[in-house]
Each structure stands twice: as structure tokens, then as C-alpha cells.
UniProtKB/TrEMBL annotation:
GO BP: ceramide metabolic process
UniProt organism field: Colwellia psychrerythraea (strain 34H / ATCC BAA-681) (Vibrio psychroerythus)
Keywords: Hydrolase, Membrane, Metal-binding, Transmembrane, Transmembrane helix, Zinc
Residue numbers binding Zn(2+): 113
Primary location class: membrane
Domain of life of the native organism: Bacteria
Topology class, membrane: Multi-pass membrane protein
Designated name of the protein: Putative membrane protein
Amino acid sequence: MKDREKKCVTNGYNRKGIIGISIILLCITVGVLLQEPIAQSLEYHDFADNRSFLSIPNFYNVLSNIPFIIVGFMGIHSLFISNKITKLDELKVGYCFLFLGLLLIGFGSGYYHLWPSNHTLVWDRLPMTLAFMALIAIIIAEYLSVELGKRLLYPLLIIGGASVLYWDYTESNGAGDLRYYILVQFLPLIAVPLILLFMKPAFSYGNRYWWLFLTYILAKLFEHFDTYIFEVLTAISGHTLKHLIAALGMLLLLNGYKRRKKIEVNDR
């Protein structure tokens, strides 16, 4: 019985925390779903830097996806070959999905930026949801409950993928609806900081999740100010910087995974 409790509970505040966070996320979900369907703006595909080089269109936005492939490969190698990642063994598949998703982001995003359209954007967003949802399950397992993280992993992966496929289906029928994909993107921005703030980690170097969160926010800002940054810097655009800073965030997380230590229950 004690072993079961230890497996299912990460800290003494998890039940209240889960309930509180769930209520907040539920309210946000209801609020978003009450809105009218949101179509994908075609202006989304208009990048400030559309320069070609070596006959590759949007060269720098394509090339800047290579770091995702490199860090994703490094993560998979560290997980299965060198075995340098300190992880929850019960959720090894979750860490695998995280770095596999990251690697696939490099290919999917590179493909999208070659020929930007709603059709190719699907292959950018599918691996993104794979990595995002795997990361959420990992954080739940490390901060709330190992058992809960395991149980939620595959449902979260399915929900993430379904949100992209649903959007693609609605776009193909002339009435695009991004609401579910927006929830998949936005809810973690609310849930993750709350979990990191109020729950106790299973490992040291928990600050690397904060670094990842901050680089993600910074990447979104670079994306938003794509044109302005390109006009100021001229050599590089905000969108290209978005890719680089997002990959850097994952590299910092991977480094933390390699250096961290298990925190004993009595020390938390």
C-alpha cells in the first residue's frame, strides 16, 4: 500500500493543486469554446524574410529548423544510447515522444517554410503538439503524480493531434476552426507556471522548465514582431530568431535532464 501511495503521489499538496488547476483550465476552456470559430488567417504565411538562397525559398526560416533536429537527436541519443538522462523510468516513453516530436518539428517546420500554406502548416503543427503534450505529461508526472502522468500521456497526445486534424478538416471545408488548437497551445501556458510555482519537483534543476517557458514566450514575441525585427536588423528576422530561441530552450532543458538528481521524498 505504501509503495502504491509513493508511486501515485509526488507531494502532499497535489490533490488540492490538481483540483485548483483543473478548475482554472476548465473555465478557460469553456470561455474559448463559447467563442465563434476562428479561421487561420492567410497573413500568417507572409514572413518578413522571404529571401531565397541556393534555390531554397525562405532560406533562413527553413535553415533555422536544423537546431530542432540536432537537439531532438541529442535527446533521443541521451535517452536510449548513452543513457545520460535522469528520468522517471515509468514514463520513459514520454521523454521519447518529447524528443522525437522535437526532431520531427525540424522536418515538419522546414517543409512548411519551404511552401507556406494551410496544407503544409499541418505538418508543422502535428509534431509540435506531440512534443507539447508529451512535455505536459512529463511535468505532471514529475510534479504531481507519476501515475497521473502515465495515464494522461496518450490521451494528451491524441487530443493534441486531434486538435490539428480538426482544424485542417474545417479549413478544407471552408470554415476553419482553430479553437481547439488554441486551447492546446494556450492551456499549458497557464498550467505549467502554476504547477512549477506550487508543486514540489521530483528532481533538481527544475529551473530548466522555467527557462524553457521563458524562451517559449520570447519566441512568441519574436514571431509577433517578425517584420519589425527584420526591418531593424536586416540580416535576420523575428521568425528566424523564434526558431533559434525555441531550440535553445529545449537544449537547456536537455542539459538539465543530464545534470539533475532525484530529490528524496523527505527533502521535498
